[in-house]
Amino acid sequence: MPFFSTRGESVVTASQAILRGIAPDGGLYVPAMFHNVRPERLTSLTEMNYEQRAVAVLKRFLEDFSVREIEDAVHAAYSPERFTAPEIAPMKQMDGATWSLELFHGPTLAFKDMALQLLPHLLRLSAEKNGENREICILVATSGDTGKAALEGFRDVPGTSCTVFYPLDGVSDVQRLQMVTTGGSNTHVIAVKGNFDDAQTGVKELFTSEEFRNQMAEKGRVLSSANSINLGRLVPQVVYYFSAYAELLKNHAIAAGDPVNFCVPTGNFGNILAGYYARCMGLPVNKLICASNRNNVLTDFFNTGIYSTHRTFFKTISPSMDILVSSNLERLLYEAADRDGGLIRTWMNLLKESGSYSVGEQRRDWLLDTFWGDCADNKDTLGEIKARWEQDHYLMDPHTAVAGHVLRQYRKMTGDDTPSVIVATASPYKFAADVLNALTGDNAGGDPFIASEKIQELTGVPMPEQVLKLRDLPIRHTAECFKDRMGQAVLDVMA
Ligand SMILES: *Cc1c(COP(=O)(O)O)cnc(C)c1O
């Protein structure tokens, strides 16, 4: 099956799309069509474990990969050394009609592991298929979570290396510790003397610098990116929507063909878009509920059909959703525009030049057949953590709690009582100080380790060993650089 660019005619294979990341015209790669999964195939998923479900879904997208290659990649990615839950993505019932799909049992305690554990293997295979035999060097600028997930994903994957830049004073203690203690012979972490924008701008410049590319090529290396618009990050996420449905079927919570809702805490629109792709393949999804924090640009978009970045940027207690330009939305717009690349180009140019575009009322109504957008501020979020704990004894992190609050609002406003799945994107222990604050009104002075101990004492929810270990792991990465010396820093750490 070929893949198209959202902005034009470019046609590539799955492996080429993964290798390139972004299309030459600036668009994102989308599948030419969606393979329909027949209802009896859905039922057969109930008999499978997560790995087998992953193979069943992925082979419908990755047609230039052999089933054997997909099996091996999936097996390496979702191994018990890396995921502490044997189900990989367990479902927990919260109340009579609500389940939590837990995507945080991987090495970095957040849902990005679901894709970033698999991407390195897909990337290595994609390189092989396209005659690329140089070492693939991943460069990442991170404001916290993505960097660690990428490091863990690429750690010791042959033929690859991963270098992460983080702003020296711009990440939390836990995030910094998670990164600088990373093991592996092919991982590098460099602190940039500057803020996140400096790090991100620096990485972008390295990608476009002829000189730097040549310096890397001389050493037999080629640059690549692992950010969330890469097709290799999107397709692994489709799997867990099918898996969640199969779990509900297996536990007789629903009957075959029954619709369910998914409520997704959203930032860059990658997670929820994977849910949309699952629906396009025939998964019986009623509504995809798009939950935003105070940076509610998507809520306004679904309500008005206008996407506008003319707004204040807020720092919230769900930082991985603090985003004003949701890049993966472009893939949904492509479907809303009847796959008219010219229209996407027009909208994206408007966004770049004037900060906003409108899709019109008709397309907005079409989107609302499937989507619902709403938001939660910090107060709503803290209230939801406390309420869920007190009512259902379920402990949520602040990102998941945004979705919890929005699902309540959705039910109140629509009366829809379809069984619903909240997509849980991070462990509460990854944001321990805020979670403790929600439960008790005290945040342990912001100390994540003390807060974690107090949460465990209070709730009995076991602290993940990743948090426990973090305190004692040796620091392995100490490199620092000025923001205009990032290229040299990469060459130095790799020497
Ligand atoms: C990245 C992230 C999100 C947002 O996911 P998108 O795919 O960007 O919409 C939500 N929660 C957590 C914990 C994340 O790390």
Tell me briefly what this model is:
46% of the residues lie in helices and 16% in strands.
Structure notes:
This protein has 495 residues and is α/β, with parallel strands linked by helices. It has a domain at 91-111 and 232-463: Rossmann fold (3-Layer(aba) Sandwich). It is 46% helix and 16% strand. It contains 22 helices and 16 strands. The strands form four sheets. It has a six-stranded mixed beta sheet, with helices on both faces. β4 and β5 (98-102) form a beta hairpin. The two termini are 40 Å apart. The model has no long low-confidence stretch (mean pLDDT 94). Pyridoxal-5'-phosphate (PLP) binds at residues 110-112, 145, 228, 265-271, 320-321, 399, 425-426.
